[in-house]
Amino acid sequence: MENLYLYNKYCEVPQNALKPFDNGKFKGTDINTMWRIKCLTEEFGPCGIGWYPEIVRTWTENGANGEVLCFAEIKLYIKVNGEWSKGINATGGSTLIQYVKSGQYHKSNDEGFKMAITDAIGVACKLLGFGANTYWEQSKSKYTADNGEENKEQPQKTAKNRTETEKKGKPSKKDFFAKYGYLAFEKECANYERRLGNIPFEHWDDEIFELVETDMKERERKRVRKAQLSMVEDADIPFPMRGDYAERED
Q: What's phi and psi for 196, nearest 5 deg?
């Protein structure tokens, strides 16, 4: 199989498998899951015979406003010339409990984990080149210039650019984690990026910052409480039991 065989064959998505979306946080074009499954089956055979996803793990994370997020890590295997490939790692995510801001209530999603697994399969297919042209187009504003020139070198940040970024309120990685006492901010940031489903720090929005801040505050509260209990134990102070107070009242 040539290196770009799968990429070139499945990079273009038919219009009936595309659907624009706007969930309030992101805008883009969604690719129908069944189109990906059709492509995998067409190329490698039925699921379980020519390809299959292995669920490595699933987990949940607490989100902002009482939301509960769910994630799935998978490995996608394909059979080429009678031999199984190595696992293609991918992570997907969805929401189990969603906060509806307009009505100020929460609603459950009983298909959250299924959606997370489906999302992960899509990410794995993306690594094979499935729907590449759609992803390329959606990334144009980030990786290409407005005139369509590819890989054009972006101008370096100036003092003016940095000031405008600061005005938007988005802190640097170092400042954000140092505020909560994490001097090894690269390590701490990498840990949160992994827990959030491999979302890089540069792509965090206000909701993710709020989620991470809430988690770090809770961790700090637990550390302080643990330190306080340790100090009490080391002091060896004979605190009176409840019965002692009763005797004094008499």
A: -90, 10
Question: What are the residue ranges spanned by the domains of the chain?
Answer: 5-143, 167-235
Classify domain 5-143 at the CATH topology level.
Answer: Enolase-like; domain 1 (3.30.390)
Query: What pLDDT does residue 59 have?
Result: 96
Contacts of 80 (CB under 8 A, 6+ apart): 1, 44
In this prediction the pTM is 0.55
Query: Contact, 50 vs 79, CB < 8 A?
Result: yes
Do strands 18-22 and 27-31 pair parallel, antiparallel, or not at all (unpaired)?
A: antiparallel
Element (H, E) at 198: none
Distance CA 190, CA 224 (A): 24
Note the pLDDT of residue 141.
Answer: 43
Q: How far is Cα 45 from Cα 60, in angstroms, rounded to an integer?
A: 33
Query: How many Å from the N-terminal Cα to the C-terminal Cα in the chain?
Result: 90
